[in-house]
Structures are given as structure tokens and as C-alpha cells.
Write a structure and sequence with these properties.
Order of helices and strands: HEEEHHHEHHHHHHHHHHHH
Organism: Polarella glacialis
InterPro entries: BTB/POZ_dom, SKP1/BTB/POZ_sf
Protein name: BTB domain-containing protein
Shape: elongated
Largest sheet: 4 strands, mixed
Strand content: 5-15%
CATH topology of the largest domain: Potassium Channel Kv1.1, Chain A
Helix content: 55-70%
Pfam family, one: BTB
Number of helices: 16
Distance between the termini: 70 Å
Structural class: mainly alpha
Number of domains: 3
CATH class of the largest domain: Alpha Beta
Length: 296
């Protein structure tokens, strides 16, 4: 038996009674059946829900350890989910049923992801990640920060790649308006920190704080290394630098666009005149008019 798994199960789901009686000897009220022929009572948020222990054990290694290890939960056929929501458990239970094609939605995806990760239901976790990638693409900076944090906490690699790709395409839009970021978000942004610094005009002079080799990040991706804390601390300055560079970037784009205007204006203004009759002064006037906007 997986000892770490057993320890986790014991710590998270402690049973306060070993039979269908309360500590004072009173009988528990009849449970609400979520399926016919259930053999396991789940106590959650003051309610008793009757389910099939086999389905929980097959879907979740955590429940399997609790029910098959000689723990009180397995012997008494009762599980107490303290601090959990009845509504969330019902959603979780429904999606564990074989052949259930109920879609993951915007309303339930975040709670289902939390349950799937805690109880190690990888199939459901993958469905949640697929929904996030396809249907919940962040449009605002605050939504991006929350999504980065979620991707880090639940180790969603596909979601992580999607979010970092969005950031790379438009760092000013997604990062410039964030006054601060969560440490978990900073951990994911470590991988593109040199690009962020380049976009904000921050010069990396040494590797010690900012540049991290890929093998170092892979060694312990779940820990918040000092590098992440460094990013969190200096983030307000980086975001401010990104915002300041936005007008400059737009001005440079305008200058590049205007560089071709003299020739364009000349073509349209004198296109009906023969080339020999086009006044040289007109060309010089147009060129001089737009000279300040030419690129260096």
C-alpha cells in the first residue's frame, strides 16, 4: 500500500464514528441515495449521501486507500468529508459515473478541478483542463493572473503553455495593467522572465536573480524559489515600465507607417499629370512635410 497516500487519506478524512450511530448512541438519519444499491454513506455538510464505494475506489486512489486499508472509513462503510460542500460532492460524484457525458461548464469547472486534483482523478482533471484551454481564454489581466495561479497549483501543463503564449504575444496588454502578481503566477513567469525584461526595458546584467536555467526549474517546479519572490517584489516597477513603453511603441509604429506617405500622396495627387509636368517643388514639399515622421 502506498504509505504517503494512506497518510494523506488519514489526515484529510478523519472519521468520528465507526458505525451508523453518533457518539451519543443516536442513530444517524436515513441517507439520501445518489444511486440505487449504494453501500457507502458519505457525510458531508450535515447530509448523508449513499453511494457505491466501488465507483469511488476505482476512480480515486485516495478513496481506494481509505476504503481498502483497514481504516475506520473502510470498516464502517462511512466517510466524513469535513469542510466540504454537499453540492460540490454531488457534481463530483455525477461525473465519476461510467458513461456519464455531462459537460464540464464554466460554473463547475473550478470546483471540479479542485476535487479532481485532491482525490487524484486524472481523467476528470484532464476534462477540466481541456475546458479551460478551449473555452476560458483570459481576456483581461486580472483573469490572466488567476489562470496562471490555477495552472501552477494544479500542474496544468497544457494550460500553462497556452497562458505563456498569450503573454508573449502582447506583454504590454496582459502584464502592464497588473499592479501585483501572485507568487504562483511569478513561478510560471520565470520561464519567460528575460523576454519580460526586454519588453519593459529592464536590463539583465547578471544571472543570479533573474535568469534561471531550465534544468533548475525542472528540479523542483513546485517550490517558490527566491527568484519568484524577487519577481513579486519588483513587479510594480516592471508593470510600470511596460505601461510607459506602450505610447513609445505606438509612436514608433506610426512613424514607420508615415514613412511611406510622401510617395503615396505624390502618387494620388498628381497621378493624372504626365511625369514631365509633375512639379519638382510639389514632391519636395510633400517630402519635407512628413520628414519629422520618417524612421531613423
Amino acid at each position: 500500500m502506498d504509505e504517503p497516500l494512506l497518510k494523506r487519506a488519514r489526515n484529510e478524512q478523519k472519521c468520528t464514528a465507526t458505525s451508523s450511530e453518533t457518539a451519543s448512541g443516536d442513530k444517524w438519519p436515513a441517507g439520501e441515495e445518489l444511486c440505487s444499491g449504494g453501500d457507502l454513506s458519505v457525510h458531508v455538510e450535515g447530509a448523508i449521501l449513499v453511494v457505491h464505494s466501488l465507483i469511488l475506489a476505482l476512480a480515486s486512489p485516495v478513496f481506494k486507500a481509505m476504503l481498502g486499508s483497514g481504516m475506520q472509513e473502510g470498516l464502517g462503510k462511512e466517510i466524513f468529508l469535513k469542510g466540504k460542500s454537499k453540492e460540490e460532492f454531488v457534481h463530483f460524484w455525477r461525473l465519476l459515473q461510467p458513461g456519464n457525458f455531462e459537460p464540464v461548464t464554466q460554473e463547475n469547472v473550478h470546483c471540479l478541478l479542485r476535487w479532481a486534483d485532491e482525490y487524484q482523478v486524472e481523467g476528470l482533471k484532464s476534462r477540466c483542463e481541456e475546458h479551460l484551454v478551449v473555452k476560458e481564454v483570459p481576456q483581461e489581466p486580472a483573469a490572466l493572473d488567476s489562470a496562471l495561479k490555477e495552472a501552477f497549483i494544479y500542474r496544468l501543463e497544457q494550460r500553462r503553455e497556452q497562458l505563456l503564449g498569450l503573454v508573449k504575444k502582447d506583454m504590454v496588454r496582459y502584464l502592464g495593467s497588473l499592479p501585483c502578481i501572485a507568487p504562483e503566477s511569478a513561478e510560471l513567469l520565470r520561464g519567460i522572465w528575460p523576454e519580460i525584461c526586454a519588453a519593459s526595458g529592464v536590463v539583465l546584467q547578471k544571472r543570479s536573480d533573474c535568469q534561471v536555467e531550465a534544468k533548475e526549474l525542472q528540479a523542483d517546479p513546485s517550490s517558490l524559489a527566491p527568484v519568484s519572490q524577487h519577481i513579486v517584489q519588483m513587479w510594480p516597477f516592471v508593470a510600470s515600465a511596460l505601461r510607459d513603453r506602450r505610447p513609445a511603441k505606438r509612436f514608433q509604429e506610426l512613424r514607420r507607417a508615415l514613412a511611406g506617405w510622401p510617395r503615396l500622396l505624390e502618387t494620388h495627387l498628381v497621378r493624372f499629370q504626365p511625369a514631365s509636368e509633375r512639379p519638382k517643388a510639389s514632391r519636395e514639399f510633400l517630402s519635407g512635410l512628413l520628414e519629422p515622421f520618417r524612421s531613423d
